[in-house]
Amino acid sequence: MTRPITAGVDGTEESHAALAWAAREAVRRGAPLRVVHAWRYEPGEGLDAQGRDDQERWVRDAVGQAVREVRERHTGLEVSADVVEGGAVETLLAAAADAGTLVLGSRGHGRLVGFLLGSVGQQVIAEAACPVVLVRSGESTAGEVAAREVVVGQEGGPEDSADALRFAFETAAARQAPVRAVRAWTLPPVFAYSPASLKLLDDAGGPEPYEKKALAAALEPWRARFPDVRVVEHVEMGSAGQVLLSVAGRAQLMVVGRRARRTAVGARIGSVAHGVLHHAECPVAVVPHQQ
């Protein structure tokens, strides 16, 4: 059974943009769309106070209206909606466990500041079992023209970025878009080289040819699986976050991998994903590495 594209909605402009993006992606992939809203009863005061039943009715009516608009826009799309009483993080993580992709909205502050991630978004991205896509408020179909690229970061060996590459190629195939696979590299301190690593670099003809060969090896199975997807191999010296952001202007979607690490204050994503999430102008997909 095809897992749904799930959109978390909360009535804000950002979540409406996320829902619209999720609906278009569900149509492209032939997947069902699931709409999820988490709510908690908030007792009010004064003449405008609403009882529990009134609040729940208002929430369900708002979600129902959003679903009706999606169905009118995408005739034939299978759409379901769940209004869940509970915390947003817990509800979204539970939804992510059954989703192919979870889509959330995020406020943006323009070219210099980028995305604004709330605590809910940060926790969900760090812990979700499926890819999470962050969509800016005001995001439209204008950036989804086929000529624009799906940019994906690749690092390490073929298995290290396999999940991110899979998501990027699947998305590009559904959109008939090219993939730009980006591998960044830096020169480590001389003492970090072992005799074995020095031999590998020497056999490859130097650091940059070695990195190009490593990227080609990682892409080989995905080129074979998606022969109709045009691929641009991009190897550049610099930090991964900086190199990815340097090509973000041509992207309709940026895809980065995620290896969440646990700290005393909860899960945290890596610096590359964090930097791209906060500064890329296009939607960003954060794909967990399946151990």
Derived from helix and strand composition plus strand pairing, the structural class reads alpha/beta
Gyration radius, rounded? 21 Å
> How much helix is in the residues?
40-55%
Low-pLDDT runs of 5+ residues are: 109-116
Shape: elongated
**Biggest sheet descriptor:** 11 strands, mixed
Specify the CATH class of the largest domain. Answer: Alpha Beta
Describe the structure.
Helix 3 runs parallel beside helix 5 (119-127), helix 7 crosses helix 8 (207-225) and helix 9 packs parallel to helix 10. This protein folds into 2 domains: 1-139, HUPs (Rossmann fold, 3-Layer(aba) Sandwich); 145-291, Rossmann fold, CATH 3.40.50. Helices cover 41% and strands 24% of the residues. Strand 11 (261-263) and strand 12 form a beta hairpin. Strands 1, 2, 3, 4, 5, 6, 7, 8, 9, 10 and 13 form an 11-stranded mixed sheet that branches. The chain is of the alpha/beta class and 291 residues long. The model is unreliable at 109-116 (pLDDT under 50). The protein contains 10 helices and 13 strands. Belongs to the universal stress protein A family. It comes from Streptomyces flavalbus. InterPro entries: Rossmann-like_a/b/a_fold, Universal_stress_UspA, UspA. Residues 1-136, 149-288 form the UspA domain.
